[in-house]
Amino acid sequence: MADEVVRIENLAKQYRYGVISHGTLYKDLQSWWARFRGREDPNLRITDEAVPGLEGERFWALQDINLEIKRGERVGIIGRNGAGKSTLLKILSRVTTPTKGLVKLKGRVTSLLEVGTGFHPEQTGRENIFLNGAILGMSREETRRKLDEIVVFAGVERFLDTPVKRYSSGMYVRLAFAVAAYLDSEILVVDEVLAVGDAEFQRKCLGKMKDVAGQGRTILFVSHNMSAIRNLCPRVVLLSNGRLVMDGDSSHTVAHYLSQNLVEGGVADSVELEARMEGQINRRNPSIRFREIALLDEFGTQKSLFNSDEDIIVSITFECLRRVQNLHILVDIVDEDNASILSSYNVDDPNVTTNFYELNPGGYKAFCTLPKNTFGERNFFLTVCLISLKTEHVTVKKILEFEVKFQGYNDNYCIGNDVFVRPQLKWKMQPIDSVHVNNYWE
Q1: Do residues 395 and 385 touch, judged by C-beta distance below 8 A?
Q2: Domain housing 40
Q3: Which spans in 250-291 are helix H?
Q4: What's 151's domain CATH number?
Q5: Taking the CB of residue 224, how many other CB atoms lie within 10 A of it?
Q6: How does pLDDT run across 301-339, given as a tens digit for each residue?
Q7: What is the value of pTM for the model shown?
Q8: Do both 182 and 297 map to the same domain?
Q9: Do 201 and 325 sit in the same domain of this protein?
Q10: Same domain flag for 139 and 58
């Protein structure tokens, strides 16, 4: 198609464990000679670990990747560490070559793969701006026209004629991003480097990437920050173990990734019992088994999309396979980073009856109401945990995603409600002379 700027067909990249490749012939010879003499590799990094028996074995960093990206699209690429995200960007940036498959690019590519990509440490900030422009095929006059905008955006005016080797990592990435964003290229490839900058600069970068996409440039953005991905990218690609497992709308793709990530991070997403005894999973002799976790409205209808002005009822159906003592039920609302936003135990309720503490074998249903006018307009993740403290220290968790649409209060809908908690608080206004602190709400 005429609007297609990136086409990837049956792409695959293979590496071999233990193969020397330090980027220079001198270092490769150093490492080879050390191995020949049975000495430790002098170029081995602190984080590198030798894997016995794997040297020379092959593994696929990418397999069977097929992707088409159109002009002006903002595409997020997500996945766990080792999923193949950075390898894909390096192939698109021509840093490395594919083992198999075809990559077609239409236009110039600007890459920001790590702090200082394309910068010469001995040259000044000004010289590196012109160097990057020349690498992109731009004339000196084109780069000069953009120079002032780049410097202002990066905030390095005072240090423009200082060698970049003296820059902090934050200054380095600010200048590198400004160069990548302002110099004219059709495709902008950005890896996780924005995490180095402060919160204000990250917001500026996300806003700038939206602007350049509106000018017809294509953005490929890798990040572990799901809020940034959702905010910037309408389309998200999910990689896992070198394979493309999902390509679609950002909300659904991110939700799928987060649910899988929470599961692998220790939260069990299963209707069957995931019992943990002193860190070990016990599936043979469980005491409790989940039957169903559901979110209901006031009419008992099960759904995952709620308006902010309606109660959300958490329905928990479970079975006790033997007598269970001192049962605690935890309802926990978490964000996309698995950080808790709201928590409630059944024993928090002053009206809780003793039957929560001693349950005979049989089926049970517990309810918890998340009150209306509590949540902002966001996606949330619910985890439910059953804990039997006296029987066998069983902990069971289940994940469920739901979305809240904010309706506003008193017929007023205020913009900027992309927050997790948006309660309807009590307000009062009085002339200063009439305010009595002790009778504030009289």
Answers
A1: yes
A2: 4-261
A3: 250-264
A4: 3.40.50.300
A5: 15
A6: 998 889 988 999 999 988 888 888 778 888 888 877 677
A7: 0.62
A8: no
A9: no
A10: yes
